Amino acid sequence: MPGKKTTASRQFEEKKEEDLVFASMAPVGAFDGGYTLRKVLFRKGDDVQLNSSCDDTDDVWIGRICQIRTSPADPRNTLVKIRWYWSRNDIETYVKTFNRSQCAPYERILSDDYDYVSPYAFQEVVYVHEYNESSLDPPALGPRDLFVRTALLHRRKTLKPPLGVDTCLCQVAYNPFPTSVTTSPVEHDPMHFCPSLHCRKWYHVSCLKNTQGLLDNLPAATRDLRLLAVNPDEEVLYPTFSYFYEKESQEDVVYSSAVTLHEALTMLGRSPSILTHLPAALLTIAQLPIVRCPGAPAGFAIGNVADVVLARRLVYAAVQHNGAPSADPRVRSLVDACVAAQEKAAQCSFDLDFDFGFGFGSGFGDGAGSGVKDGAYVELLQRVCDELAVGEYATLAEPRVAYWEERVREYAQVGELFGGPAFVCPQCRGAI
User: Is the peptide bond before 289 cis (omega within 30 degrees of 0)?
Assistant: First the structure.
């Protein structure tokens, strides 16, 4: 990074003078504050790569545009205020207690330190993903994707939050892309995730093994159903499948083999036909543990949390609606109202272009439309969305079979991650 960035070569008074000069300049762009250079528009809030001697390394210079200003007397005199993203090597030289092995090569740490640079220092706009490890839908990161999950308070030489503070019992930060990766993912100490609303935390297999009372001692034959019961949207288990946590479930039936989801529904007095619209691959994924492992292929360095959470939500919706939610009479009545409104709009030559994914589309002419009637139609759509958005209609998506089948094939590449001991969450005691 620029030499000016270090406190050894940057004096407080110098920065104050630069601040005053920049404040005297005029903001660029009346609306978006953008600046076009070499046919590329750079705007406030963009992350950019800057010229440096590190271009071919993982220490490439990255900054975030805070402001763009120009001199009223000379428009060619333009300056950009940049907040720096620091690489793990930058941090290691500045914060002596920092352990670079807990940070990925292309991970960045956004600092509150800044500089003023010429826009001619920019190479391109880049995207730095925000990686929240407790997220149920984290970004699909690869080894060379830029990402950030903490910030540097420059003058205090402190990371906020500290890496690893919300990770596992050991609070050792997770590095999804270590420099050296062995052929076997399990050698890198995989992690299990509890998606329950008030947990949402990753745990190392080694830490779970070494902590008393975290082995799942309930029948192995129903473990998949106990995993399915851990609800990502509530702090309690999903009611239908919580039965398999109860003592009665062990006393009622002697299990000779793994109980399938269809068999479980039959046991609980529900028809397995309510799952007909869901691909078998999706049902398999819904009943898997959520895992991740450093350097693992097929996206498992970040983990399968998004897949499992979505699959479970779709199973819950099928159970709740006794089948595909779109076949529910109440949902269909709302859809029919939209269809009728669209037909009426077509007669009035409205220019509507909506597709709700319920098997009907639009494209009703190219007229200018009527503001009043169009407004009424928008109000109808808002009412429909409000009614669909309440809890019982929260999940209406129809799964794409090819996606789930492909994911199951990819899961086979890391099958060993799903083996080993069965654990429960240290906090909520749900299966993980």
Answer: no
d(CA 60, CA 55) in angstroms, rounded, equals 5
CB of 356 closer than 8 Å to CB of 342: no
Cα separation, 248 vs 219, in Å, equals 12
C-alpha to C-alpha distances, 307 to 278, 290, 331, 411, 415, nearest whole angstrom: 14, 9, 25, 11, 16
Q: How far apart are CA 397 and CA 391, in angstroms?
A: 14
Task: Determine how many CB atoms are found less than 10 A away from the CB of residue 248.
Answer: 9
The closest of 19, 22, 92, 89 to 60, measured between CA atoms, is 89
Q: Which DSSP symbol is given to 244?
A: G
CA distance 285 to 228: 9
The Cα–Cα gap between 148 and 160 comes to: 12
Instruction: Give dist(CA 432, CA 206) in Å, integer.
Output: 14
Q: List, as one string, the DSSP characters of 304-369.
A: SHHHHHHHHHHHHHHHHHTS-GGGSHHHHHHHHHHHHHHHHHHHTT-------SSS----------
| Distance spanning both ends of the chain, measured CA to CA | 42
How many beta carbons lie within 10 A of that of residue 370, not counting itself?
14
Place of tokens 């999950």: 149
Task: Calculate the dihedral angle through the C-alpha atoms of 185, 186, 189, 191, rounding to the nearest 10 degrees.
Answer: 80
Pick from 90, 243, 105: nearest CA to 152: 90
Beta carbons within 10 angstroms of residue 62's beta carbon: 23
CB 141 within 8 A of CB 176: yes
**Verdict on whether the full-model pTM lies above 0.70:** yes
> Among 50-54, 93-97, 165-169, 335-339, which is the least confidently predicted range?
335-339
Q: Which pLDDT tens digit goes with each residue over 164-213? A: 999 999 999 999 999 876 556 667 899 999 999 999 999 999 999 999 99
DSSP one-letter code for 129: E
